[in-house]
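Protocol step 4 of 6.
Sequence for Iron-sulfur cluster assembly accessory protein (Halorussus gelatinilyticus) entered exactly as in the expression construct, tag removed. Do not edit the line below.
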Amino acid sequence: MSTDTAPDADATPKIEVTPDAADEALGLLESEELDTGVAGLRLFVQQGGCAGLSYGMRFDEEPEEDDTVYEHHGLRVFVDPASMNYIEGSVVDYEDGLQGAGFHVENPNVVSECGCGESFRT
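Step 5 output, C-alpha cells:
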C-alpha cells in the first residue's frame, strides 16, 4: 500500500479533496461509527452509464493492500490502481444546491460526459 499524505511542494497530488467534501465525508464516517484514523472514502471507477464509465464511492474500514491512500483535511481516500488510471488529477467536492446535495468529482481526464452527467469517457 502506498501512502501520499504529504506530497512534495513541486508534485501535484493525484487526488484532492475540498474541505467541504472532507467535512461531509468525515461526518458520515462518524455516523457509521467507523474509525476515521483507519477507515476512509473509497473512490473508484466502474463500467456503466451511457458514456461507458461512472464513479463509485463507498466507505471502507481500511485500505486494500494495493491501494494508494491520500489524506486531505483529516479524510483518508483509498484508490485502487485500475481506477487511478482514469481519475488521476481529480478533485472531490461536495455540493449542496437547488438540485440536491452530493459529492462531485472534477476529473481533468474526461473527454465527454453523458447528458445527465452520471457517466463519462476518457
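Step 6, annotate. The chain has one domain: 14-121.
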